[in-house]
Amino acid sequence: MYTSVSGIALRTIAHNDRSSILSLWTAEAGRISVSIPADKGRKAARIRALTMPLSPVCAEVDIRPDRSIFSIRELRPAFVTAGISADPAKAMTAMMLADFLEVSLRELQPDPLMTAHIMDSVAAFDAMGRAAALNFHILFLMRLSRFLGIEPDWCQPGTLFDLREGSFRLSAPAHGQYLDETATTALRQLARMNIRNLGRFRLSRQQRREILMQILAYYSIHHRPVLQLPSLEIMRGW
Q1: Are strands 56-62 and 30-37 parallel, antiparallel or unpaired?
Q2: pLDDT for residue 152 is more than 60
Q3: Band of the pLDDT at 18, cuts 50, 70, 90?
Q4: DSSP character for 159?
Q5: Using one digit for the tens of pLDDT, what is the confidence trace for 27-44?
Q6: The domain containing residue 124 runs over which residues?
Q7: Dihedral of alpha carbons 211, 217, 221, 222, sign
Q8: Would residue 109 count as lying in a domain?
Q9: Is residue 117 part of a domain?
């Protein structure tokens, strides 16, 4: 039975000469895999264009409990993201974040509120200027932790952040997985990020890289291992 779903395209992998497997995160069914054509025809080219990483889509999917890969009857954009597809730097960030979601959202129950948040974030990312776009992945990852139940308590006192415990403290833990006072102060400042002020955070390439790795380390401890994402290398140059 075909079901209408809406969500975000994540990752496409080759299956055989005629088809590929597309991962989608959807509000209605969570993370699903669907079969899409992989030939050189016009239909296949259209679908590939619609399912670039982090693309918002609506689809008609034949969801059956006895299958792991579903058939798809219709696929269309939920809204157009020309600003991402036309900007190589934004497209690279979209690829990394889609890779992250592909791993992080496995086996989770459908969450319409989280899905709406992701889609709203993608729409904002599509429209934002370069200064803000440079920092978007930091804001996105920090905000998503709230929906996954691993967001730190920002009101908790402390000058050091314990990565393992996910809490702020006044003295260094024995295990060594913590941020020092300088990094903890910076983390609290980053927690004030929002869509409106994102472009005001002037971070160097090295600072963005270090922040990204710290956030991914935190997710790896508290949720899923994400430090070996296939697309992580593409962020080194941005």
Answers
A1: unpaired
A2: yes
A3: confident
A4: S
A5: 999 999 999 988 778 888
A6: 2-152+191-235
A7: positive
A8: yes
A9: yes
